Structures are given as structure tokens and as C-alpha cells.
Amino acid sequence: MSDVVSYQREDEIGLIVVDNPPVNALGHAVRQGLLDALDQGLADDGARALVVMGAGRTFPAGADIREFGQTPKEPALPDVINRLEDSGKLLIAAVHGTALGGGMEITLGCDYRLALDSARMGLPEVNLGLLPGAGGTQRLPRLIGAQAALDAIVGGKPMKAGQLEKMGVVDKVVSGDLKAEAIAYARQLADDNAPRRKVSELTVDKESNTVFSDYEQSIARKKRGFLAPFHCIKAVQAATELDFAAGQKRERELFTELLNSPQSAAQRHVFFAEREVGKVPGIAKDTPRREIAQVGIIGAGTMGGGIAMNFLSAGIPVKMLEMKQEALDKGVALIRKNYEATAKKGRMTSEQVERCMSLLTTTLSYDDLSDVDLVIEAVFENMKVKKEVFGELDRVTKPGAILATNTSTLDVNEIAQSTRRPEDVIGMHFFSPANVMKLLENVRGEATSDEVIATVMDLSKRIGKVGVLVGVCYGFVGNRILHKRQAQAISLVNEGAAPAQVDKVLYDFGLPMGPFAMADLAGLDVGWRIREGLRESDPANAPERNWLDALAEQERWGQKTGGGVFDYAEGDRTPRPSEVTAAEIEKYRAEQGIDTREVSDTEILERCLYVMVNEGAKILEEGVAMRPLDIDIVWIYGYGFPVYQGGPMFWADSIGLDKVHAKIQQFHDETGHDDWKPAPLLERLAKEGKRFADL
Ligand code: CAA
Fold it and tell me: Which of 7, 398, 642, 644 could cysteine-pair with 263, CB 3.0–4.6 Å?
């Protein structure tokens, strides 16, 4: 008998139970076990019908993703499901938890589907750069039609039991004891002589070709660069044109293409990396967590308000503090406006808006923060101001309260030293807009306690963020790498590229926008003011004036003023090349005596990305990031690095570190610039023929 799949009979019903914690993934042993248990059930004359279900927390949640990329082992899942469907007995799937991917495909190989009301089912393979490869693209359209199947397969989102019942996927929704309900249902079906219902034998209406091309059109923008969604559409189209066997063959071909693609390798890396970032090496799993039942936020500006929304949306009460009532009123109004805009789009009900708003209170007095469990400071980026705030927090907050700063540049250790409890101080660096961006860089200071780290990492998940733990340095992981890339982008323009050319290369690589469109979005005035400040305070070390300063001086601050590096038409965020910018660049080049040259797209890509990889390697060596995957996740969730490239460090591995290192060395030889000095870690890995993933 298999360890992971058991067979037993109860009340004339044979139960096939998968027990492979944590999520009953359909690895080789489970697939073989399913066939063995099926044979037992078929041979068991006392069993009038068979039920397939999962032990523990869920029905199988899919193929074992760790097996992808290894040599496939028979029996393959599509064959297992075909065998289930062809079995001589009535087969019922009884679903709880999350029947995803191959799990949902198993249910489609059964005659009837019963689900607990809390269960969800879906085909999320597209998120792994794959398509449902065990008959899902062929059976689902036969069951619910091509259009609904496209939504489910290309969308990849799990659906609730009630919704699945309406769609005709689930036959019956039950609550309470699933096993008892499943046995009763199976007996009922057997008593009623219910017919077998092989989904593969259902007919699916032939759709006109435009259904599929229209669908492609409809996702073209959102899924730009991705391979899998378009392969999913092709597979569903095959279901409408071919018989089941031929359709399944086509599905297999498309699946295999995706499985062997670099995109799927990258997306699978991201799946596991996203889970790994939550596990902090050196911090025990059972580290006690502090209870966070109420949060204080200092500052009701755009950042403070955005941060507050994360907690309110997660049902955690927030007290917001400002110096002036007017600022509080403005902040509260902005939060309400944002929620109402979401409600208008149909993504929230008005009751939910009111529930969130009812969790928000405001105050002008620090003393009112005496009962909060966590305070996040989101005030002006100035060390003196921050130290004053933390001094006040130290005075008023209760022992054990966590004191967090949202600083993006300042030294968390220095801030912590302004309190008598540096072990309770941590950075929580939200990315703008804070209620939208999924990344949260949690910055560990020298003294931050394990308990505080563990609590904040858990809390990140609770408020829907991906928390990555980083160490202290200027810009932390994300912005430190970003600054290096921006510097290259500017140099490339100085040397002869146009801003639009640089942006296009990075956009085509898959980033949501290029460096200059990003600068226009953030506002050119921000960097300009910082540089101006440095020119006043430290003229000897201040950065040279460049064409970006010239643009900022003309109040070309980006999107918000209708023009920055690019021009923007009223109400349109499409960047258009600007003559003013071109003239300023020319002027700057002339002043500097630069002989311009043609800059190739390849050079743009290499310089903008390799500099990130080199800085990433330095960050790893310094221990500011713990693992390469932490850097990948920071860049994916903080800056929209394309998931299908896997993050900058995974991408570098896929190019080959020897190649990356050689080019970085060449750039260093040519420029002598510090940013191109190869990181010793990169040098070592390249020499040893290793990857960052081998660390
Ligand atoms: N294969 C291997 N491991 C898996 C897995 C899978 N399909 N699904 C989850 N796991 C692992 C996770 O890596 C994690 O491991 P660690 O504890 O070591 O980190 C553990 O199971 C628990 O997972 P989560 O932390 O994600 O737990 P959760 O409760 O938050 O979520 C879940 C559970 C909804 C099932 C979520 O894990 C999930 O979405 N899993 C992936 C589902 C999926 O994509 N299935 C399709 C697979 S591809 C397929 O089936 C192709 C086909 O057509 C044959």
C-alpha cells in the first residue's frame, strides 16, 4: 500500500484518500498511489462508487512544482486522469481547501464534483509560466464553454465553490463533514443509477476564430512579454477544433514547450522565492511573535495615508497623528477618496469602505499613542526630525511596542539610538503608492530583536505585502541598485543615446517603464532638490550640474507639470520625446566637450542591467541582502522587474556569470568607474563556474 494514497471502504463507498502534506502535491508517489488505489477500488466488489479526496488541509493543490525540470517519471498525470475517467465505476471528487492545477484536473476526470462551501478550485498554471497540462485545457471548455474556460485558464485565479456551482463545474456544495457528505452523495448517486459523465465525451461548440484573436487582443497589454497566457489560448482553441485525443496531444506539445522555456523556469523560481523570503535564516520558526492589534502612524501625508490603508483594509485599527488638524483632515479625506475610487471600480462595497474608515482615528497628541502595539513613522526625510519623533515615541509608547521608521535613505541604527529601546526599532520601507505596491523592505538594525523581526515579517503577510528583510545601507537593497541603474541611463544619454531609446530597451525587456519615464513619474524636482542641497552644504563633493538639473530649473518636473524628460499631452501619460530636453542634452554635451557616438540597444541593456547585478553582488557580500532571491523579490515587487525574467540575480544566472563578469570587467577597464569594479563575489562565482543560486 502506498504511503501517500490510501484506499478504504465505508458504507459501500470506496474512498481514495491522498495524504501528502502539506498540500497533497501530485508527485510521482501520489500519481502511482492513485492508480494503485483505483485498481483496488475497481476490484472491490463491495464498493458501489468511488470518492477521491485529500487528507489534511486540502484536495491536491496541483502537480509537485519541484518535479518540473527533472526527468519526468511515469505514470504522467494526464494518463492517471484518463485512467480515472475510463474507470468502470462511478467516480466522485470531494473537494476541500484548494483544488488547484492538476488537483482541479483530477476533479474534471471524475463524473461528479462535490465541494465544501469554503473550498476553492482553479487552474493557476499560467502563473508558473505553464498551462494546465493534464487535460484541463481540453475538459474545462467541454464542461463550461470556451469563453468561461479562457477566463479561468488565462486568468489563473482560484474560484469559490458557490461560483463554481453556478458555472456548472461543481455539482453540489455542502458544509460540515466532507467525508460523511461525500459518502451520502455517492450512495445517493449509486441508488439513483446516476449516469457516468465523462467530460472528455462532451461536445464543445466550435467558436469563430475571432473569439480567440479577440481574447489575445484583450490581454495583449496586461500580459505583454508573457508566453504562457497566449499558449493557454491556443490550447483552448484546440479544444474547440479537435477531438479529445488530438486536443490532448496539442495540449501536451504546448505544455512541453512552456515547461522547457526560460520563462517558466523564472516564474517557478519566483514562486518559491516569494515563499523563501518569509523565512529568515538564523531566526527560529518558533520565535515568539508580539500581538499587533492597533497601529499608530505618524504623518498623514501621501505616504502615511497609504500605509494606514494597508492596515485598515486588513481590519487592524489605526491611529494617525499629525501636528495640525488641517493636515489630519486632509489625510483622512484622501484615504476616503482612495477607498471610494476603489468602490467605484467595483472592487469594494460601500459597507467595506465604511468598515475601513471606522477603524481610523486621529490625534494631535503623542500621549494618545500609549496603547498602540506598533508605530510607523512616515514624516519628512530628515534625521533631526526623525530623532525627535522617536524620542517622543520612546517617551509615550508602552513597553514592547514596536517602533518602525519608513525612511528610504536614513540610517536606522542612528534613529534607533535616539530611543532607550533600539531592540524594538526596525525599518518598514513601503514603496509608493504604499497602498498598492506589494513590496515591504523590512530593515533590520544592529540591535533589532528577533522577536521584532519575526513579528514584522508575519505582519507584512497579514497586510498583503511581500516582506523582504534587508540590512542598513544607503537606499537599502532596492533604491541602492536603482541609483546605479539611473546613473548608467544618464551616462548613456550623455554619450549619444536618446532618452526614448534607453527607455524603449528596458520597456522591451519587460519593465513597466524605462528609467526616464520613471523619473518623470517620481518627479525630477525630488532629485534636483537633493543635489541642490548638496551643492550648498558640501560644494566640494556635490554632483556636477547636468541636463536634468537644467530641466528641473525650468520647472519641467515630469508628469505632474506636463513635461519632464518627456512631454505629456493633457490627461495622457504617454511619454513623447521633447525638443526642450533634446536641446538641453545637446547643450550639456557641448559644454562637456562630449563627442557623441551611436549607442547600441545591446549596450544599453547590458550597462543598465549588469550594473544592477554587480551592485546586487556587493549587497550580498555586505550581508545587506541575505540571499540572491531576496534581491529578485525586491525588484519584482518594488519595481516591476518582469516575473518571467525571474529578477536581476536569476536573470544574471541565466546569462551565465562568466559572461556577465567579463563584460563588467570590460566596462571597468574602459571607464575606471567604481560602479564597474567587479564585486569580488561575482568574480569568484564566475571563476568557479557557479551561479548566484549555488550560494
Ligand atoms: N508543489 C510543490 N510544493 C508546493 C506546491 C506544489 N504544487 N504548492 C505549495 N507547495 C509548498 C510551498 O512551497 C510551501 O512549502 P514550504 O512550506 O517549504 O515553503 C508549502 O507547500 C505550503 O505552501 P504555502 O506556503 O503557499 O501555503 P498557503 O496555505 O499559503 O497556500 C496554496 C497553499 C494555495 C496551495 C499555494 O501553495 C499555491 O498556490 N500553490 C501552488 C498551486 C499551483 O500552482 N498548482 C498548480 C501546479 S502546476 C500543475 O498542476 C500543472 C499541471 O497541469 C499538471
Answer: 644
- Confirm or reject: Cβ of 297 under 6 Å from ligand 1: no
Which residues belong to CATH 1.10.1040.50 in the chain? 513-594
d(CA 86, CA 669): 67
Every domain of the chain with CATH number 3.90.226.10 lies at: 5-260
Q: Cell 529601546 belongs to which residue?
A: 421
pLDDT band at 1 (very low <50, low <70, confident <90, very high): low
Decide if 276 is catalytic. no
Cβ of 274 less than 6 Å from ligand 1:
no
Residue 288 has pLDDT above 70, yes or no: yes
Ligand 1 center to 199 CA (angstroms): 26
Within 10 Å of residue 106's Cβ, how many Cβ atoms? 29
Give the tens place of pLDDT for each residue, 58-68: 999 999 999 99
85 catalytic residue (yes or no):
no
Q: Is 422 in the pocket of ligand 1 (CB under 6 A)?
A: no
653 CA distance to ligand 1 middle (Å):
24
Q: What is the pLDDT of residues 443-490, one digit of tens each?
A: 999 999 999 999 999 999 999 999 999 999 988 999 999 999 999 999
Q: Strands 120-122, 159-160: parallel, antiparallel or unpaired by DSSP?
A: antiparallel
**245/464 Cα distance (integer angstroms):** 42
Topology of domain 513-594, per CATH? N-(1-d-carboxylethyl)-l-norvaline Dehydrogenase; domain 2 (1.10.1040)
Strands 402-405 and 425-430: parallel
CATH of the structural domain 295-472, one choice from 3.40.1550.20, 3.40.50.720, 3.30.565.60, 3.30.160.270: 3.40.50.720
Domain with CATH 3.40.50.720 in the chain: 295-472
Q: Phi/psi at 596 (nearest 5 deg)?
A: -75, 160
Each residue of 500-544: pLDDT tens digit? 999 999 999 999 999 999 999 988 998 888 788 888 888 887 888
Residue-wise pLDDT tens digits, 175-190: 999 999 999 999 999 9
Q: Which of 67, 85, 105, 351 is catalytic?
A: 105
CA dist., res. 433 & res. 150, Å (int) = 32
CA distances from 489 to 169, 174, 516 (A): 51, 58, 8
Question: Atom 38 of ligand 1 has which residue's CA nearest to it?
Answer: 61
CATH code for the domain defined by 5-260: 3.90.226.10
Residue from 4, 23, 462 whose mutation best tests the ligand 1 pocket (most atoms within 8 A of CB) = 23
Please check the confidence at residue 626 and state whether its pLDDT lies above 70. Answer: yes
